[in-house]
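Pasting as-is:
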Amino acid sequence: MTGLYRETGVVLRTHLLGETDRIITVLLRGRGKRRCVAKGSRKPGSRFSGRLQPCAHVALQLYEGRSELHTVTQVESLDQWKAIIGDLDRLTRASELLEVVDQLVPDGAADPRLHDMLVGALRALEANGSALVVPAFMLKLFVHEGLGPSLQECASCAEPGPLVAFDLNHGGLLCSRCRRGKGVSDELVHLMRRVLGGELGAVLAEEAGPEADDFDALMSEAMEAHIERRLRSRSVARQM
Protein backbone atom coordinates (compact mmCIF):
# COMPACT_ATOMS: atom_id res chain seq x y z
CA MET A 1 0.00 0.00 0.00
CA THR A 2 1.32 3.44 -0.92
CA GLY A 3 0.33 7.02 -0.13
CA LEU A 4 0.56 9.80 2.43
CA TYR A 5 0.12 9.24 6.13
CA ARG A 6 0.63 11.23 9.33
CA GLU A 7 2.45 10.07 12.44
CA THR A 8 4.18 11.37 15.54
CA GLY A 9 7.62 10.10 16.44
CA VAL A 10 11.02 10.59 18.04
CA VAL A 11 14.13 10.83 15.87
CA LEU A 12 16.63 8.24 17.10
CA ARG A 13 19.54 8.94 14.76
CA THR A 14 20.42 10.44 11.39
CA HIS A 15 23.03 10.04 8.70
CA LEU A 16 23.86 11.86 5.50
CA LEU A 17 22.65 10.82 2.07
CA GLY A 18 24.26 12.37 -0.98
CA GLU A 19 25.02 16.07 -0.90
CA THR A 20 21.72 17.51 0.32
CA ASP A 21 19.59 14.76 1.86
CA ARG A 22 19.46 13.10 5.25
CA ILE A 23 18.18 9.70 6.35
CA ILE A 24 16.47 9.66 9.73
CA THR A 25 15.69 6.65 11.88
CA VAL A 26 12.53 7.51 13.78
CA LEU A 27 10.38 5.69 16.31
CA LEU A 28 6.85 6.28 15.04
CA ARG A 29 4.08 5.84 17.56
CA GLY A 30 1.83 3.75 15.34
CA ARG A 31 4.27 2.20 12.86
CA GLY A 32 7.36 1.48 14.93
CA LYS A 33 10.95 2.18 13.93
CA ARG A 34 11.33 3.38 10.35
CA ARG A 35 14.09 4.75 8.16
CA CYS A 36 12.90 7.80 6.24
CA VAL A 37 14.53 10.20 3.82
CA ALA A 38 14.29 13.97 4.26
CA LYS A 39 15.12 15.26 0.80
CA GLY A 40 16.93 18.57 0.66
CA SER A 41 17.07 18.82 4.45
CA ARG A 42 20.72 19.95 4.38
CA LYS A 43 20.13 22.78 1.93
CA PRO A 44 20.29 26.32 3.37
CA GLY A 45 16.79 27.47 4.25
CA SER A 46 15.26 23.98 4.13
CA ARG A 47 11.89 23.78 5.89
CA PHE A 48 13.24 20.66 7.63
CA SER A 49 16.38 22.39 8.91
CA GLY A 50 16.90 21.80 12.65
CA ARG A 51 13.65 19.87 13.06
CA LEU A 52 14.93 16.39 12.29
CA GLN A 53 17.91 16.09 14.60
CA PRO A 54 18.29 13.17 17.06
CA CYS A 55 15.96 13.56 20.05
CA ALA A 56 13.42 15.63 18.11
CA HIS A 57 9.79 14.85 18.96
CA VAL A 58 7.85 15.66 15.83
CA ALA A 59 4.60 15.33 13.92
CA LEU A 60 5.36 14.05 10.44
CA GLN A 61 3.64 13.67 7.12
CA LEU A 62 5.28 10.84 5.22
CA TYR A 63 4.93 9.30 1.81
CA GLU A 64 5.06 5.54 1.57
CA GLY A 65 6.14 4.58 -1.92
CA ARG A 66 7.68 1.42 -3.29
CA SER A 67 11.02 2.09 -1.61
CA GLU A 68 11.66 0.86 1.93
CA LEU A 69 12.58 4.47 2.74
CA HIS A 70 9.47 6.52 3.41
CA THR A 71 9.79 10.18 2.41
CA VAL A 72 9.26 13.08 4.82
CA THR A 73 7.00 15.68 3.20
CA GLN A 74 6.07 17.80 6.26
CA VAL A 75 7.40 18.13 9.80
CA GLU A 76 6.24 20.03 12.88
CA SER A 77 8.12 20.17 16.19
CA LEU A 78 6.12 19.00 19.22
CA ASP A 79 8.72 19.52 21.98
CA GLN A 80 11.64 21.93 21.90
CA TRP A 81 13.97 20.28 24.46
CA LYS A 82 15.77 23.59 25.14
CA ALA A 83 17.19 22.40 28.48
CA ILE A 84 18.45 19.13 26.97
CA ILE A 85 20.06 20.77 23.95
CA GLY A 86 21.68 23.44 26.09
CA ASP A 87 23.19 21.06 28.66
CA LEU A 88 25.87 18.54 27.64
CA ASP A 89 25.09 16.26 30.59
CA ARG A 90 21.37 16.08 29.75
CA LEU A 91 22.13 15.67 26.06
CA THR A 92 24.45 12.74 26.81
CA ARG A 93 21.72 11.08 28.88
CA ALA A 94 19.15 11.69 26.15
CA SER A 95 21.53 10.09 23.65
CA GLU A 96 21.70 7.01 25.85
CA LEU A 97 17.90 6.75 25.88
CA LEU A 98 17.79 6.97 22.08
CA GLU A 99 20.55 4.41 21.60
CA VAL A 100 18.92 1.86 23.90
CA VAL A 101 15.60 2.12 22.08
CA ASP A 102 17.29 1.97 18.68
CA GLN A 103 19.17 -1.19 19.66
CA LEU A 104 16.16 -2.95 21.17
CA VAL A 105 13.42 -2.18 18.65
CA PRO A 106 13.32 -4.09 15.35
CA ASP A 107 12.37 -2.18 12.21
CA GLY A 108 8.65 -1.80 11.70
CA ALA A 109 7.54 -3.23 15.06
CA ALA A 110 4.75 -0.91 16.26
CA ASP A 111 4.92 -0.23 19.99
CA PRO A 112 2.90 2.85 21.05
CA ARG A 113 3.63 2.21 24.72
CA LEU A 114 7.39 2.30 24.17
CA HIS A 115 7.06 5.51 22.15
CA ASP A 116 5.14 7.09 25.03
CA MET A 117 7.71 5.84 27.55
CA LEU A 118 10.52 7.43 25.56
CA VAL A 119 8.72 10.75 25.21
CA GLY A 120 7.94 10.69 28.94
CA ALA A 121 11.59 10.05 29.79
CA LEU A 122 12.74 12.91 27.56
CA ARG A 123 10.18 15.24 29.13
CA ALA A 124 11.39 14.25 32.61
CA LEU A 125 14.98 14.88 31.55
CA GLU A 126 13.98 18.25 30.13
CA ALA A 127 12.14 19.18 33.33
CA ASN A 128 14.76 18.42 35.97
CA GLY A 129 17.75 16.60 34.49
CA SER A 130 17.69 13.98 37.25
CA ALA A 131 20.47 11.39 37.12
CA LEU A 132 17.76 8.82 37.81
CA VAL A 133 15.85 9.32 34.53
CA VAL A 134 18.00 6.97 32.44
CA PRO A 135 18.32 4.05 34.88
CA ALA A 136 14.63 4.31 35.80
CA PHE A 137 13.73 4.19 32.10
CA MET A 138 15.93 1.14 31.60
CA LEU A 139 14.40 -0.67 34.57
CA LYS A 140 10.89 0.01 33.29
CA LEU A 141 12.00 -0.98 29.80
CA PHE A 142 13.10 -4.38 31.09
CA VAL A 143 9.61 -4.82 32.50
CA HIS A 144 8.10 -3.73 29.18
CA GLU A 145 10.26 -6.29 27.38
CA GLY A 146 9.02 -9.07 29.67
CA LEU A 147 12.24 -9.16 31.68
CA GLY A 148 11.00 -7.50 34.82
CA PRO A 149 13.37 -8.46 37.66
CA SER A 150 12.28 -9.95 40.96
CA LEU A 151 12.69 -7.22 43.57
CA GLN A 152 10.70 -8.54 46.53
CA GLU A 153 12.41 -11.89 47.11
CA CYS A 154 15.41 -13.86 45.94
CA ALA A 155 14.97 -14.65 42.26
CA SER A 156 16.63 -18.03 42.77
CA CYS A 157 15.30 -19.48 46.03
CA ALA A 158 12.41 -17.11 46.87
CA GLU A 159 13.84 -16.19 50.28
CA PRO A 160 12.61 -12.74 51.40
CA GLY A 161 16.10 -11.50 52.17
CA PRO A 162 18.35 -9.91 52.88
CA LEU A 163 18.89 -9.35 49.16
CA VAL A 164 22.48 -8.44 48.43
CA ALA A 165 23.12 -8.81 44.67
CA PHE A 166 21.52 -8.27 41.27
CA ASP A 167 21.79 -10.40 38.14
CA LEU A 168 19.22 -9.89 35.40
CA ASN A 169 20.14 -13.20 33.74
CA HIS A 170 19.16 -14.98 36.97
CA GLY A 171 15.93 -13.06 37.45
CA GLY A 172 16.84 -10.03 39.54
CA LEU A 173 17.78 -9.65 43.21
CA LEU A 174 19.52 -12.51 44.97
CA CYS A 175 20.17 -13.44 48.60
CA SER A 176 23.61 -14.04 50.11
CA ARG A 177 23.35 -17.81 49.57
CA CYS A 178 22.46 -17.47 45.88
CA ARG A 179 24.60 -14.42 45.32
CA ARG A 180 26.04 -13.75 41.85
CA GLY A 181 26.26 -10.70 39.65
CA LYS A 182 26.73 -7.24 41.14
CA GLY A 183 26.37 -6.34 44.82
CA VAL A 184 23.60 -3.93 45.84
CA SER A 185 22.91 -1.88 48.95
CA ASP A 186 19.64 -1.74 50.88
CA GLU A 187 19.22 1.84 49.64
CA LEU A 188 19.52 0.75 46.02
CA VAL A 189 17.03 -2.08 46.53
CA HIS A 190 14.57 0.39 48.06
CA LEU A 191 15.07 2.80 45.16
CA MET A 192 14.37 0.17 42.51
CA ARG A 193 11.24 -0.92 44.36
CA ARG A 194 9.99 2.66 44.44
CA VAL A 195 10.60 3.12 40.70
CA LEU A 196 8.47 0.07 39.85
CA GLY A 197 6.03 0.62 42.69
CA GLY A 198 4.33 3.73 41.33
CA GLU A 199 6.60 6.34 42.93
CA LEU A 200 8.67 7.32 39.91
CA GLY A 201 7.40 10.89 39.88
CA ALA A 202 8.31 11.36 43.53
CA VAL A 203 11.71 9.73 43.01
CA LEU A 204 12.59 12.09 40.15
CA ALA A 205 11.44 15.11 42.14
CA GLU A 206 13.78 14.32 45.03
CA GLU A 207 17.48 15.10 45.17
CA ALA A 208 19.38 12.03 44.00
CA GLY A 209 21.25 10.23 46.77
CA PRO A 210 24.57 8.37 46.58
CA GLU A 211 22.76 5.25 45.38
CA ALA A 212 21.87 7.05 42.12
CA ASP A 213 25.30 6.39 40.60
CA ASP A 214 25.08 2.71 41.59
CA PHE A 215 21.61 2.48 40.03
CA ASP A 216 22.85 4.08 36.83
CA ALA A 217 25.86 1.73 36.59
CA LEU A 218 23.77 -1.34 37.42
CA MET A 219 21.10 -0.69 34.79
CA SER A 220 23.60 0.27 32.09
CA GLU A 221 25.65 -2.88 32.67
CA ALA A 222 22.49 -5.00 32.61
CA MET A 223 21.35 -3.34 29.38
CA GLU A 224 24.73 -3.79 27.70
CA ALA A 225 24.67 -7.47 28.66
CA HIS A 226 21.13 -7.80 27.30
CA ILE A 227 21.85 -6.22 23.91
CA GLU A 228 25.30 -7.83 23.81
CA ARG A 229 27.16 -4.66 22.92
CA ARG A 230 28.57 -1.59 24.61
CA LEU A 231 26.46 1.54 24.59
CA ARG A 232 28.43 4.06 22.57
CA SER A 233 26.78 7.03 24.30
CA ARG A 234 27.65 5.47 27.65
CA SER A 235 31.27 5.06 26.63
CA VAL A 236 31.44 8.74 25.70
CA ALA A 237 29.97 9.69 29.09
CA ARG A 238 32.59 7.61 30.90
CA GLN A 239 35.35 9.54 29.15
CA MET A 240 33.97 12.96 30.12
